[in-house]
Design a protein that fits this description.
This protein is an alpha/beta fold. Helix content is 46%, strand content 16%. The protein is built from ten helices and ten strands. The protein has a six-stranded mixed sheet with strand order 1-2-3-5-7-10, sandwiched between helices. A hairpin with a 4-residue loop joins strand 1 and strand 2 (14-19). The chain is globular and about 70 Å long. The chain starts with a strand and ends in an 8-residue tail after the last helix. 35% of the residues are buried.
Length: 263
């Protein structure tokens, strides 16, 4: 049986995870989600410094595979809603798992990122898009809510509440130029240059210390949920004290000539 998720753990420290159902624009099935979790578990304990997430073929991820809309299994004697709740929680947990791994995740959006696909892109730490990329919270178009797979929390924080509500309520498609203009992605590139751009960014990130990058990712996400500026600074202060204990600051300062020999 073909693998729905491909993982490449390269020797240069960049891991690449490719959603691999190109005939379905990489729409999410139960099998794909299970493979996705297993791949993230492998990345988390690997020497990889950065993960690039992309899709095979013409799409990044078209969200939930609607051919499964009438397909669900529940334990004997339980209603279909029981099985749907389990599926929903499993799909949604991909977002928190992407956030939890120590490696920063770069979304290389190579086509449609719709519905849950938009949620996956938003769960990544950085998003790059090619010219043919498209974004939509499409579930509102098919009788469901756009509040799905983290979108209702992540999208307003990425682009602001007014724009986020408009996109979620209409389900309209956003092209790559608009996505860059509103801050949904940090940059756009030609289709043929997307992966090289993503890998170059990954290499730049990997040039920093692994723990420094990990603590930056953890701290930035944690402080998005912080209740106050004072609480955010408190977390930053504790993080810096922990980082100082690694000796990396002194070592880097010596490497760059800021400290005199013997100091």
């Amino acid at each position: 049986m073909a693998e729905d998720v491909l993982l490449d753990l390269a020797d240069d420290g960049t891991a690449t995870l490719t959603l691999n159902r190109p005939d379905r624009l990489n729409a999410l099935s139960d099998k794909m989600v299970d493979e996705f979790f297993r791949a993230l578990d492998r990345v988390a304990v690997s020497p990889a410094r950065v993960l690039v997430l992309t899709g095979a073929g013409r799409g990044f991820c078209a969200g939930f595979d609607l051919t499964l809309a009438a397909s669900i299994e529940s334990p004997a004697g339980e209603p279909a809603a029981y099985g749907w709740a389990q599926r929903q929680e499993r799909f949604g947990a991909l977002v928190t798992r992407l956030r939890a791994i120590p490696q920063p995740v770069i979304a290389a959006v190579n086509g449609a990122a719709t519905g849950a696909g938009l949620g996956l892109a938003l769960a990544c730490d950085v998003r790059l898009a090619c010219r043919s990329a498209r974004f939509s919270s499409a579930f509102v178009k098919v009788g469901m809510s756009s509040c799905d797979v983290g979108v209702s929390w992540l999208l307003p924080r990425a682009i602001g509440t007014s724009r986020a509500f408009e996109l979620m309520l209409t389900g309209r498609m956003v092209n790559a130029d608009e996505a860059e203009r509103i801050g949904l992605v940090s940059g756009t590139t030609e289709d043929t240059d997307l992966m090289s751009r993503a890998c170059a960014l990954a290499a730049e990130i990997a040039g920093n210390g692994a723990m420094a990058v990990w603590m930056t990712k953890r701290g930035a996400w944690a402080n998005l949920e912080s209740g106050s500026l004072a609480a955010a600074i408190e977390l930053e202060n504790r993080t810096q004290v922990v980082m100082l204990g690694t000796g990396s600051l002194e070592a880097r300062a010596r490497e760059r000539g800021f400290l005199k020999p013997g100091a």
